[in-house]
Every structure is written in structure tokens, then in C-alpha cells.
Q: What sequence folds into this?
């Protein structure tokens, strides 16, 4: 069965500092990987996705993620964090089987940004 | 498109009452998902539909939970009777068919059962 692990429950950074959020997945084949962001009181919004090609993926809001098959990882990065980036971040993997898309989500990492 | 629309945004009900959550997916999407989000368990998939047909409801916690999708533009999640432990944020999401396509989420319904 596919699974996603986000080892950090909370991450605290200062505004302007760089950021890396970790994500490790378990999947039998080439995975489809996603990062979502959830602002307080809102639904999940897609930041970026990977399903083939270049292993460095660019997303919205200045985020990027790198797929590393050897490490089963898909870490999210941003070179300079803004206060508005404070939110919950979810890594997801899919599909499960049969060509259908059933995303499995990690537990999420809460990003706290200090001024 | 206005995105996935859920109603109500907030619901407060008394234990034992019936609760119905509603979802309008993005037009043309093939899949519809219902998720529940709690601090303890994170984001859990409750049930999903493909072309209005329920495919997997193994995530539905108990028989008190039921979901329907009478047509391509509407789905409901019903809890009867509700209990305090059902308090959570319930999300509806929809997606197109095909590998690599992402799910689009509604803003959620925050349910409080007192």
C-alpha cells in the first residue's frame, strides 16, 4: 500500500530564511507526487506536482520540490520565506492502482514564520 | 468555474441529530472524494465516487455515515445520528480521470457536535 511520511509536525523559520519541508513516500512503482498548502480555515490548494520528466519541479508562490527516487523523497523548498507562507503543508502520493487517482496524504507539517 | 463548493461552511448540532453536508464538484470532473480532517488522525479518505458510483467506502467509520451522489453535480455526506466524536472538518474534492491529475478541494465544512 502506498503511504506518505512527513517527519516534521512543526517547522519554525524566520522571515527571509530558506525552508525545506521533508516528505518520504512508499510506493511500488513510479509515484505521482503532490504538495498542497492549507491556509487557516481554507481548503487544500495545489502547490506543485511531479509525475515524470525533470525531477526538480517548480510550483506557485516560489516553491519548488525535488524528486529523489533513491531516497524515496519529495522535499519542498523555498529560498526565502514570507510571513504569508505560514500554513499547513501536505505531501501526497497517488494513484493507487487501476489508473484511478486516489491521493494518500501525509499528516502535514505546520509552518510557523517569525518576523 | 467556481471550484468545489461545499455547504454549509459551519454546522453546530446536538448529539443524536442528523447532519447533512453538501458538495458540488467542478463540472466535468470524474471523481469525487469525501475527506475528514482531525488533529488526531489528519486527513482521512472516507469514500470516493467515480462517475457518480461509489467505489470505495472502506474509510467510512461507521454505519452512521452514508454518502450519495445522485448526479454528476451533487453529493451529500450524512451522519445519523451524530456524536461528539464526529466533530471535524469535512472536505469534498474532485478530480479528472487520469494519472497525475490533482484533486481540487472545497473550503470544507466545520462540524461541531455538542
A:
Amino acid at each position: 500500500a502506498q503511504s506518505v511520511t512527513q517527519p516534521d509536525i512543526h517547522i519554525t523559520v524566520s522571515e527571509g530564511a530558506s525552508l525545506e519541508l521533508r516528505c518520504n513516500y512508499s510506493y511500488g512503482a513510479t509515484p505521482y507526487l503532490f504538495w498542497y498548502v492549507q491556509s487557516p480555515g481554507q481548503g487544500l490548494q495545489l502547490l506543485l506536482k511531479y509525475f515524470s520528466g525533470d525531477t526538480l519541479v517548480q510550483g506557485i508562490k516560489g516553491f519548488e520540490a525535488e524528486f529523489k527516487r533513491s531516497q524515496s523523497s519529495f522535499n519542498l523548498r523555498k529560498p526565502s520565506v514570507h510571513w504569508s507562507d505560514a500554513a499547513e503543508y501536505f505531501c501526497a502520493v497517488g494513484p493507487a492502482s487501476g489508473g484511478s487517482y486516489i491521493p494518500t496524504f501525509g499528516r502535514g507539517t505546520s509552518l510557523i514564520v517569525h518576523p | 468555474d467556481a471550484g468545489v463548493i461545499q455547504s454549509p461552511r459551519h454546522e453546530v448540532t446536538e448529539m443524536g441529530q442528523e447532519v447533512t453536508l453538501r458538495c458540488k464538484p467542478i463540472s466535468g470532473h470524474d471523481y469525487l472524494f469525501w475527506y475528514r480532517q482531525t488533529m488526531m488522525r489528519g486527513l482521512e479518505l472516507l469514500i470516493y465516487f467515480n462517475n457518480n458510483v461509489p467505489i470505495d467506502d472502506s474509510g467510512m467509520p461507521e454505519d452512521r455515515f452514508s454518502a450519495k451522489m445522485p448526479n454528476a453535480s451533487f453529493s451529500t455526506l450524512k451522519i445519523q445520528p451524530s456524536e461528539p466524536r464526529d466533530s471535524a472538518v469535512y472536505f469534498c474534492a474532485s478530480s479528472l480521470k487520469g494519472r497525475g491529475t490533482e484533486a481540487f478541494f472545497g473550503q470544507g465544512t466545520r462540524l461541531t457536535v455538542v
